[in-house]
């Protein structure tokens, strides 16, 4: 039976649901069904029709209700013929409960239910399955739809959803008279087994009533049941599923049955005359008295209709039936005046609305009584001419302007004058005043509609002769709007435009808002401000429906050239006086894709086309700065010049040679030696004292002959040697003087080892012996160094 049901549901899904074409007949013992070949066209994969096989196979379409197993319940398996078992196909599941109720193994296509299901909550689930290529993520076949049905179990008892029931049947009804039909509902599946097959029976209420076991119709079982003997009956009904068999679930309900009355008694007045007293001040439509006729019947048989018999007072009074109490309510149709007439007399007739022809022979079903009304004289308060006064006034109306008036009169015979005043409880801010004699209302302060659009207060009128007699009326004043506020653009004030925008493209729809109370049909107009209308990048297109569009005028925009545009838009209303305002919209240029979707509007995105963040850009710049600092420091160190110290021989034992371990200041030391003459031979100091020694006595400055331009360096040095030889202040020891001045055409280029391109090993120091006795030590020193270690390079 289960296999046949499964196959029936599967065939219904395939044929009626349109999932697959008709299948070839298959053996009943299998649930898996292999579809036959169809002629289909797969979009984007074939250029012509060819016969392919739809590759879905469902092993099962049912899941057991209220499954309580520890493991997920296996439902079925999805499989595609294109799946060769190589792991290249991914199965997806969507639809009812996908992911929350049912899960699918993306590789094998197995479907499991991950929670317990209730068929009464949802009997079936419609899902869609698809096979997707796991690498290209493209569907291999069109999406298919299938149904998973929840298999029912008998877990719900029959329930009377409308119980307990209340029914009625007329008294004296014959046997088998219809009373009521009850119905029990079983939430189980009516198409599966007997779980929802219900049988009815009476547990309490016999022998008065009976019930049909299949339909649940209750009928009378005894004749001539009298309401006066027993009016109420309580019947207990049972509904049992499984066809009433043993083990079925049952539910009960109570039916309260009432015997209704038949109209066999006419209404009767308890007395023939009714006396009523009515004040003359009674308002029109008010109830001035009640009379009642008694009917021993019940329900609609006791409903009474009252009518005034034409005669005295028939046009002044009216009578209606109170449906709750079945009393006759007498109401006033016209005002009473004690001074005109003091008493009225008329007759009232009471009759049943629903007559029963079986009892007409008992007599007429109606009765008559007399009503006498006495009018009482009453001193009344003043009466306003209207129950509510409504007035209108424009905002900013000058103080003291009269906007309306109220009128009240004393209707008594000796009428009295009336005084008016405003109830201070309702108008505590005193926006209005009233003339106490005339009743005219005027403004007391300037009114602002935007602050308060409506005022509601009360005016009291009292009699001058008796101030305790007063009446009150409500005043409703509407403040009319004056056009004083210009319209403004509704948000947003900022929009965006794509860099690849085309001319004539609408990038934003704007509307206007007005703080004034806009009258019906008011129109707003939009335009570009005059100063922005000259060669505009954007323009405003008025749609004439209180909206406008921001339209591009250029073929593309560049964020590098200009990121923001400010567009002044003028909005004007149609009220009087006309108000207008200029609103500036900010338009930001953004990068968009070909469909116009905004990708980025940030400024940093201009400089980061490859997707670098701000932090990465700062790190790169910091590294560049550090590298530049290292290069500058290296160049500075290379350019720093070092000076070699003068090497003296430690083997020289002559007494006139003094060894110094300290280095001179070099070219920067201008205190020990004056090297200005070497740098510029034309400069000769007239009064120059030697600073390398401390003279014992003050000596006259030495006269140095001028050195001509381009003097050979050898002549220059000999000249200085002669000056030192004849100088009486020269020290009695050798002294070494270095000069930076080379002269033109020098063979040795430079005497400085710092700037020399060659080493000491490459130089010949024999010429030092030709410079005289003062350079002999220096010549011997370099000569010994060269002979001792000729391969050494310093």
TrEMBL record:
Transmembrane parts of this sequence: 606-637
Subcellular location, principal: membrane
InterPro entries named among the record's database cross-references: Cadherin (IPR039808), Cadherin-like_dom (IPR002126), Cadherin-like_sf (IPR015919), Cadherin_CS (IPR020894), Cadherin_Y-type_LIR (IPR000233), Catenin-bd_sf (IPR027397)
Domain of life of the source: Eukaryota
Alphabetized Gene3D superfamilies for the sequence: Cadherins (2.60.40.60), TCF3-CBD (Catenin binding domain) (4.10.900.10)
This protein's UniProt keywords: Calcium, Cell adhesion, Cell membrane, Membrane, Repeat, Signal, Transmembrane, Transmembrane helix
Positions of the Cadherin domain: 80-160, 161-269, 270-384, 385-489, 489-607
Subcellular location: Cell membrane
Membrane topology label: Single-pass type I membrane protein
SMART domains documented for this protein: CA
Signal peptide: 1-25
Membrane keyword on record: yes
Function: Cadherins are calcium-dependent cell adhesion proteins.
UniProt-recorded name of the protein: Cadherin-12
């Amino acid at each position: 039976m289960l296999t046949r049901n499964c196959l029936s549901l599967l065939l219904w899904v395939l044929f009626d649901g349109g999932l697959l074409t008709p299948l070839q007949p298959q053996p009943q013992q299998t649930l898996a069904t292999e579809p036959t070949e169809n002629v289909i066209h797969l979009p984007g994969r074939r250029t012509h029709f060819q016969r392919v096989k739809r590759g879905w196979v469902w092993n099962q379409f049912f899941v057991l209700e209220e499954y309580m197993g520890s493991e997920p319940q296996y439902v079925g398996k999805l499989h595609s013929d294109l799946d060769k078992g190589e792991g290249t196909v991914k199965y997806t599941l969507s639809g009812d409960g996908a992911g929350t109720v049912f899960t699918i193994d993306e590789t094998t296509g197995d479907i499991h239910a991950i929670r317990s299901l209730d068929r009464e909550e949802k009997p079936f689930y419609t899902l869609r399955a698809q096979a997707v290529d796991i690498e290209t993520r493209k569907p291999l076949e069109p999406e298919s739809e299938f149904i998973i049905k929840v298999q029912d179990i008998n877990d719900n008892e029959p329930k009377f959803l409308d119980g307990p029931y209340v029914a009625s049947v007329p008294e004296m009804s014959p046997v088998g008279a219809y009373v009521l039909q009850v119905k029990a509902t079983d939430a189980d599946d009516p198409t599966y087994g007997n779980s929802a097959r219900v049988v009815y029976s009476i547990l309490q209420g016999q022998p008065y009533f009976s019930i049909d076991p299949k339909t649940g119709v209750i009928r009378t079982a005894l004749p001539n049941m009298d309401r006066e003997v027993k009016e109420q009956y309580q019947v207990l009904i049972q509904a049992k599923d499984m066809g009433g068999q043993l083990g079925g679930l049952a539910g009960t309900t109570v039916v309260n049955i009432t015997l209704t009355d038949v109209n066999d008694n006419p209404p009767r007045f308890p007395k023939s005359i009714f006396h009523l007293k009515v004040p003359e001040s009674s308002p029109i439509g008010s109830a001035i008295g009640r009379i009642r006729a008694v009917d021993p019947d019940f329900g609609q048989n006791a409903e009474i209709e009252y009518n005034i018999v034409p005669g005295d007072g028939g046009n002044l009074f009216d009578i209606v039936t109170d449906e709750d109490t079945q009393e006759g309510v007498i109401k006033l149709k016209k005002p009473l005046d004690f001074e005109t007439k003091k008493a009225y007399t008329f007759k009232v007739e009471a009759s049943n609305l629903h007559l029963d022809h079986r009892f007409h022979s008992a007599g007429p079903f109606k009765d008559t009584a007399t009503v006498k009304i006495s009018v009482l004289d009453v001193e009344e308060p003043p009466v306003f001419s209207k129950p509510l006064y409504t007035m209108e006034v424009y905002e900013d109306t000058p103080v003291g302007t009269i906007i309306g008036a109220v009128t009240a009169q004393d209707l008594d015979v000796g009428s009295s004058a009336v005084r008016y005043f405003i109830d201070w409880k309702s108008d505590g801010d005193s926006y209005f005043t009233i003339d106490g004699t005339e009743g005219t209302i005027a403004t007391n302060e300037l009114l602002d509609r935007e602050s308060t659009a409506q005022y509601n207060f009360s005016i009291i009128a009292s009699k001058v002769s008796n101030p305790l007699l007063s009446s009150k009326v409500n005043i409703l004043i509407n403040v009319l709007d004056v056009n004083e506020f210009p319209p403004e653009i509704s948000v947003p004030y900022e929009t965006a435009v794509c860099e690849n925008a085309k001319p004539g493209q609408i990038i934003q729809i704007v509307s206007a808002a007005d703080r004034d109370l806009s009258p019906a049909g008011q129109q707003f107009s939009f335009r570009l401000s005059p100063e922005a209308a000259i060669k505009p990048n954007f323009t405003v297109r008025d749609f004439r429906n209180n909206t406008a569009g921001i339209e591009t005028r250029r073929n593309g925009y560049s964020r590098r050239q200009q990121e923001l545009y400010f567009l002044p838009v003028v909005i004007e209303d149609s009220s009087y006086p006309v108000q207008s305002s200029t609103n500036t919209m900010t338009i930001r240029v953004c990068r968009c894709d070909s469909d116009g979707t905004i990708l980025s509007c940030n400024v940093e995105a201009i400089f980061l086309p490859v997707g670098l963040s701000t932090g990465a850009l700062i790190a790169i710049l910091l590294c560049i700065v550090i590298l530049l600092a290292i290069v500058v420091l290296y160049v500075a160190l290379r350019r720093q010049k070092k000076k070699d110290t003068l090497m003296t021989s430690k083997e020289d034992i002559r007494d006139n040679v003094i060894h110094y371990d300290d280095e001179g200041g070099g070219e920067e030391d201008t205190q020990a030696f004056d090297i200005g003459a070497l740098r510029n031979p034309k400069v000769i100091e007239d009064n120059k004292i030697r600073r390398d020694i401390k003279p014992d006595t003050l000596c006259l400055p030495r006269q140095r002959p001028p050195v001509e331009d381009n003097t050979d360096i050898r002549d220059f040095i000999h000249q200085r040697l002669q000056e030192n030889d004849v100088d009486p202040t020269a020290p009695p020891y050798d002294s070494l003087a270095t000069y930076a001045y080379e002269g033109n055409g020098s063979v040795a280029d430079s005497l400085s080892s710092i700037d020399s391109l060659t080493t000491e090993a490459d130089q010949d120091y024999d010429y030092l012996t030709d410079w005289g006795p003062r350079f002999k030590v220096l010549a011997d020193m370099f000569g010994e160094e060269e002979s001792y270690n000729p391969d050494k390079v310093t």
